[in-house]
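Run log // design_07
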């Protein structure tokens, strides 16, 4: 008969893939990981609070704006340089297309279409963030 001694009971995590679970994790499981956008939001809150010395609510507002801009940067399309991404019209002498973006992806817009396109994209991004549970504080 095998004897159990306290020296065999350990707080070490189980061997990966063994299917074993520590009793402490079974009785008090760790929280599930946060979704990526929520984790980015929480990380930005911490950074803003420590670097700017803001209280939590103000840091949440600033962090939300950071996440919103990051989301917009990551999700904007690479559009046809011959057509405005907002109105679909081509460039003309009186209405030149301008490139918006950095790196390899650019959105091409007429100067007078920029504000409407930006507002539409921002509203869509706010809606998409809200669908993930992330809303402006």
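design_07 sequence
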């Amino acid at each position: 008969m095998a004897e159990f001694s306290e020296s065999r009971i350990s707080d070490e995590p189980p061997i990966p893939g063994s299917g074993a679970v520590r009793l402490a994790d079974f009785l008090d499981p760790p929280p599930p990981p946060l979704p990526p956008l929520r984790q980015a939001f929480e990380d930005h809150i911490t950074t803003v609070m420590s670097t700017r010395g803001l209280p939590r609510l103000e840091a949440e507002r600033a962090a939300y704006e950071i996440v919103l801009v990051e989301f917009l940067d990551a999700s904007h399309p690479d559009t046809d340089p011959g057509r405005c991404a907002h109105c679909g019209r081509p460039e003309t002498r009186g209405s030149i297309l301008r490139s918006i973006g950095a790196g390899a992806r650019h959105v091409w817009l007429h100067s007078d279409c920029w504000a409407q396109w930006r507002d539409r994209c921002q509203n869509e991004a706010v809606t998409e963030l809200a669908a993930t549970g992330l809303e402006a504080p």
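Strands lie at 97-100, 107-110.
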